[in-house]
Every structure is written in structure tokens, then in C-alpha cells.
Amino acid sequence: MVQTFSQPETISLELPNAIALLVSSEQFEALALANPDLRLERTAEGELIVNPPTGGESGSRNLSISAQLGNWCEVHEDLGEGFDSSTGFILPNGAHRSPDASWVSRTRWEALTAKERKGFVPLCPDFLVELRSASDSLSTLQEKMREYRENGARLGWLIDPQNRRVEIYRQQAEVEILLDPVELSGEDVLPGFVLNLRRVWR
User: Fold this and answer.
1) Is residue 32 in a domain?
2) Phi, psi dihedrals of residue 190, rounded to the nearest 5°
């Protein structure tokens, strides 16, 4: 006699903002693998963060940023590797983060094992971008940018289309705020890279 087992019914659970769902690093990785269509993050304290899909405007803006960074990476592939918003990084403090766009120097990337490159990348990117969407809290993104900097990011851009401003985060420096800039420079981290913000501001 062959026994058959039916799949358990899937139900939805709504968590109020006041309730934090804590998961271990191993549990987070299992959740992320089981839910590839969701953008999941995990704080250093173990709190699970589920980021909703972006709207059309944010998706178009992010495509422009990723495409421009990708074009630069193709020409300067000897300098490092670029990544899109679906890439997960495990920061030194234990947080799992997925910037909207990022880049890691060739030396640091080559120092990783083949296994480390295939899974969540166990380091903080040298460069990263966070693009604020309509549902994002500015203070939450600013806290995330400070976390990136504290964990080794050399250059970070927080791009806020709602206010047409950019916050630039650098190592051991005050945050620089640019109002309605036309372009951004990759400075000495991404030599020669210039991000055109025309499509981001429109």
C-alpha cells in the first residue's frame, strides 16, 4: 500500500511593527533560499526584515543605476565585481544586507573561496547604493548606511528621489549632502565612474 501525503496548507501571518521576528543566520539562509522572490534582510541582532517589491518608478530608477554601474564594471573588470539588488552580503557584524547596487574590489573578491562566492558574500561591499523608494523610511536607510560604513564600506550613496538629494558616506568623514546633483563621482573607489542622475530624478 502506497501512502500519499498532502502538502500542508499555506497561511499568511501578519506581524505588527512592534513585534520582531528573530532568526539565526542559518534560519535566515534557509528562508532566503525558500523564498527567492522576496528581498529579505537580517539585522545584526537577528531581526528578520521583509522588503516589499518596489513600484514601477523605483524599479526604473534602480535599473538605470545598475546599468550604469554594470557598464563601468565591464570596462574595468580587472578592478573588481559589481552586483545587483538580489545579492546578499553577510557583514562583519553578522547582519545580512542587500544593497540596491554594490561593488567589491578584485583583491577582496579573489580572496574568497569558491563556496563563499556562490552563497551570501561574507563581507561588506567597498561601494554600495541604497535608493529610497516611496515606502522607505529615511531614518532607517540612514541607519543602514552608517552600518555599512562601520563595517568597512569605503563609499556609499543614499539616493533620495523624493527630496532630490544624495547623502554620501565615506570612511572617517562626515556625511556629505548634495541637493539636486546632476551626477555623482565614484572618486578613488571607482576610478572614472560617473553616475548620471537624469533618469533617477525624472
Assistant:
1) no
2) -120, 80
- What does the alpha-carbon distance between residue 130 and residue 144 come to, in Å, rounded to a whole number? 9
Report if residue 36 sits inside a domain.
no
pLDDT in tens, 63-115: 999 999 999 999 999 999 999 998 999 999 999 999 999 999 999 999 999 99
- The β-bridge partners of 97 are 89
Q: What is the pLDDT of residues 12-44, one digit of tens each?
A: 555 566 667 888 888 888 888 887 777 788 888
- How many domains would you assign to the chain? 1
With respect to residue 86, please indicate whether it lies within any of the assigned structural domains. Answer: yes
Residue 91 lies in a domain: yes
Q: Which domain holds residue 76?
A: 54-201
Q: Per-residue confidence at 7, pLDDT binned at 50, 70, 90?
A: low
DSSP-assigned beta bridge partners for residue 185:
194
Beta bridge partners of 40: 50
Q: Which residues pair with 50 in a beta bridge?
A: 40
CA quadruple 79, 154, 125, 157: dihedral positive or negative?
Answer: negative
